[in-house]
Amino acid sequence: MSALRARLCSAAQVLGLLCWLLLGGCAAPSRPVYRIGFSQCTNGDAWRLAMLAGMQKELSFYPQVSFRMKDARDNSALQQQHIQEFLKEGIDLLIVSANEAGPVTPIVEEVYNRGIPVVILDRRTTSQLYTAYVGGNNREVGQTAGNYASSLLHQNGNVLEILGTAGSSPAVDRHLGFVQALAAYPNLHLAATVQTDWERPSVLRQLPAVLRAHPEVDLIFAHNDRMALGAYQVCHQLGLSQRVRVMGVDGLPGALGGLQLVQDKILAATLLYSPGGDEAIRTAMKILLKQPFSKENTLGTMVIDSTNVLTTKMQTEKLASQQQDIERQQRLLQAQTALYTSQRMALYVMALALLGAIASGVVIWRALRHNRLITGKLTSQNQEISSQRNQLQALAEQARVETEAKLRFFTNFSHELRTPLTLIMGPVEELLTNGADLSAGQRHDLNLMRRNTQRLLQLVNQLLDFRKIDVGKMPVRATEGNLVAFVREIMDVFEKPARQRGIRLRFLPAEPTITLWFDINILDKVLFNLLSNALKFTPEHGQITVSIQLVSAEQRVRISVEDTGRGISLHDQTHIFEWFYQGQQGASNGSGMGLALALGLTRLHLGELTFTSLPGQGSTFVVTLPTVLPAALHSTAAVLPTAALALAEEIEDLPIDSADTLGALGSPENEALVLVIEDNPEVNAFLVQKLRTHFRVQTAADGVVGLRLATELIPDLIVCDVMLPEVSGLQVVARLKGDWRTSHIPVVLLTARHAPEQQVEGVQAGADLYLTKPFNPTFLLENLRTLLHNRERQREHFRRELSVDTATVAPLRVDQKFLSDLLAIVEANLDNSSLSVEDVAARLGISRVQLYRKVKAVLGTSVTDFIQGIRLTKARQQLLDTELTIAEVGYRLGFASPSYFSASFRAKYHISPSEFRALHTTPNA
């Protein structure tokens, strides 16, 4: 029997080698098939046909790609339908050239959010949710046209501009660039503009009347060559073709293309605007093949006139000829491949027949052997499954008990915070109400205590709201009411503080009355947080605009809050809705809960909270609510708003007098001069009030002004906050100590950052004293006096002891070794829920502080966040294995309970593990 088995195995091996030589060795390696869908706004003009031709040319190099184009024929609704059809058919990548940016943006965002790459071609959408953009810089096209027009007219004359469809991004950007270029030439005037639909017939209809009204026109700039040809025909009819020169855009080859029109002297010039079809396919293939690519792929432009049109035309014709040769060679190759395939088919059939005969015998023998092994394993597996089931039940019960204990502790702790805060606020309110003999300084301090106690209460309330949303215990109690009147009442609370800072507060409802069902409590907190943020980040004399728009077709209503503040950086935009996120350098001076709470409450109300922002120009937050809520969410009981009413007094009490005004009330001129650098107006005013009776005081609200005043005034002492916008307190200290003019000035740093390593960081930067908030005013005053008395004696000592260079990141290869060891330790302990920072530091042979600094310097994150990120990344991979339950994935990755795993996963990816699994394991339709 054993000899027979050996012979069978030997025969199978020989046959397998033969089949590999015949089939595997000869057959071409299989390549994946990619499906690309192209949603074109229109394919009815030569430029769009050139775009498609460029795509087909580039696709000839990728036979493994299935490409399909759908023509929307300038119809946005039809284009939305086409993209929906692509989603149902199943595509790997979508290329979109939008007919209109606004209507197409939502469906493009939906495709992107499903994880399908999106390449925007030529015309942009209004969103940043896309994978890559390919197209020309239309503003640069307009600027180039304006500069060339100035050279043609010798910077003196009158120009007429023919624009494309109103609202389309190419027309808008080309016009802006053209006007911007003309502005540099005072004697060059834009006499008139003509709005068309990109086609020549509309130019033939509208242009004659405009030229008769403006006979002084010397040059016409049309946004494409088709309209430029129409402009030339009109000028020829009116007898102006010899005097008025015409420019176009596109520079396509062909009988009616821009190159031929320039060569025939019909056009004075055309600007090359590449269709970008070939570049779009190249970018798409880089994305699908996981190769490096650029998100923004801007195509260049150039002026084609009589000096270079022949050269450009010859190059274009040469490229077309080469493309024809390539296509002919590909057809020959395909024919040879087909012949080769047909000739080897007979050999394959014979080899497969022989393989089948021997394989049948091998399969029968292996089946008998496999059955015996399976019978033995089934018994042991059944026993193991029973044991694991019992363990899972015990762990689930333990997790349930632990979760309930955590929630109980969190709720009780929050309520315990409310009790002492209330006991603080009560006596303060009583003193403010009945304390008639209080001095101005005492009343100022009590008002400061009251405002900050109210803020602490609001933070506690937000924490409680967060927990209610997290555990699903915050119900929606909607009542029917007038949304316009409700929003106007909330805005009234912000009227006074906005007026005090010179900020214009505008309310623009589309209709005087909008009646719908909504929860007053929830919507009050959402709008209050959005308006508070807008007021906080809008500079003096800025503007905040609140608008309400009813979208009946979608049964939705949109409330937008737009400000003219500093905007949100690109880095912060990806984290803006995360709990406790305060932005880069913590410059927001907030708790980091407001926007996260607003998002949670909006979703609880079955709505959406979105935003757009341009750094340096402002931000717009949009709350979208359904006009129809389920009957289960309706309530007949009257509900009063809480957030705005509870915090109205806090906003009304905001100080309107600047710290500079307080600083002017100084003591006699012979006292020492102290410069206070603090961006919080209340803390600034508090410091001035405590110091002005002993010193002359000058203030600055940020580090830039503080550095300027320090070099101008040369104060005797500087008190500076660490967390400052633009230039931090540590940078202020470093620059002061590095400048010989100010190196002798003692600097006191004030901060809420009280960790030991943070205090060391402040001292190493060169500070003479580091005090944490809250601080004792008397202690601060005595320290300032001591520093002034010992300034000359201590200056050289501190410079010698504290002049330490800032640590820099080690060379990359050293960091790679460190990160490799760190990653190995974390991955080896993924299932260890008790893995701590101290454990990792001990395994690496360094201290906890050293580990924290190293990870922070190399990765820009904490050790805990790094470990959590590795676990959650592994979780995404293991969730794709449907044989594992979600609870099993959580335990395997070191999460103490399934609920903690789900909460952590949702906090990072804004989606639950179950939703993620359903989204990524459902087969394509």
From TrEMBL:
A molecular-function term among this protein's GO annotations: sequence-specific DNA binding
Residues covered by the Response regulatory domain: 673-788
Gene3D superfamilies associated with the record: 1.10.287.130, 3.40.50.2300, Histidine kinase-like ATPase, C-terminal domain (3.30.565.10), Homeodomain-like (1.10.10.60)
Source taxon at top rank: Bacteria
Keyword entries, A-Z: Membrane, Phosphoprotein, Transcription, Transcription regulation, Transmembrane, Transmembrane helix
Domain (Histidine kinase) ranges: 412-629
SMART domains: HATPase_c, HisKA, HTH_ARAC, REC
Top enzyme class: transferase
The keyword Transcription regulation is annotated on this UniProt entry: yes
Modified residues (4-aspartylphosphate): 721
Domain HTH araC/xylS-type positions: 820-919
Keyword field contains Transmembrane helix: yes
Protein name from the UniProt record: histidine kinase
